[in-house]
Write a structure and sequence with these properties.
By secondary structure, the protein is mainly beta. It is about 10% helix and about 30% strand. The chain has one domain: Protein of unknown function DUF192 (Jelly Rolls). The longest helix has 10 residues. InterPro entries: DUF192, Saro_0823-like_sf.
């Protein structure tokens, strides 16, 4: 599958944006978010942020579209026909919700299978909904309260060895 973000990820690395992030947490003030102008995804127009997955002490970087508003989260990856191995979308509920809550995602109008990774406020993975079925109206839910959700191409979480308890870190874009 050809990735449309390959050059964008290289650009992020060249500008130093992929050099890491911080664990999203309730204690992290929004003012601490990256002050660098974010690169935008050519299809969604959303900011692209580096997301670090920590698996058994090793890290892996993902270039993720950042969905922070209710409208951006509602659209998600609907109608998209491809998603590269190191691409995804991070849904940040802290922008509108003060407390973590159980989240449920469906695949309405979503063409490709996705891994839906539910992340607690401290960045720890709560649950992974692996290979969610395209177009399904069945809700894929977290087992506990979460503040963030990361979507990856279906099967990618298993390829990386990602599981509950691993860490997801990122820095929300400024603005």
């Amino acid at each position: 599958m050809k990735s449309i973000l390959g050059p964008v990820l290289l650009s992020l690395m060249a500008t130093g944006l992929a050099a890491g992030g911080c664990t999203p947490s309730a204690e992290q003030p929004k003012a601490a978010a990256s002050e660098t102008t974010a690169t935008r995804h050519p299809v969604s127009g959303l900011a692209i942020v580096p997301v670090t997955l920590t698996i058994d002490g090793k890290t892996h970087e993902i270039a993720a579209e950042y969905a922070g508003t209710p409208q951006e989260r509602a659209r998600g990856l609907m109608f998209r026909t491809e998603l590269g191995a190191d691409e995804g979308m991070i849904f940040d509920f802290s922008t509108t919700d003060s407390q973590p809550s159980r989240q449920g995602f469906w695949m309405k109008n979503t063409v490709i299978p996705l891994d839906i990774i539910f992340v607690k406020v401290d960045g720890t993975i709560d649950t992974i909904g692996a290979n969610a079925e395209p177009y399904s109206l069945e809700s894929v839910r977290s087992t506990g309260p979460v503040m963030y959700v990361l979507e990856l191409a279906g099967g990618r979480a298993a390829e990386l060895g990602l599981e509950a308890g691993d860490k997801v870190t990122f820095t929300a874009p400024a603005g």
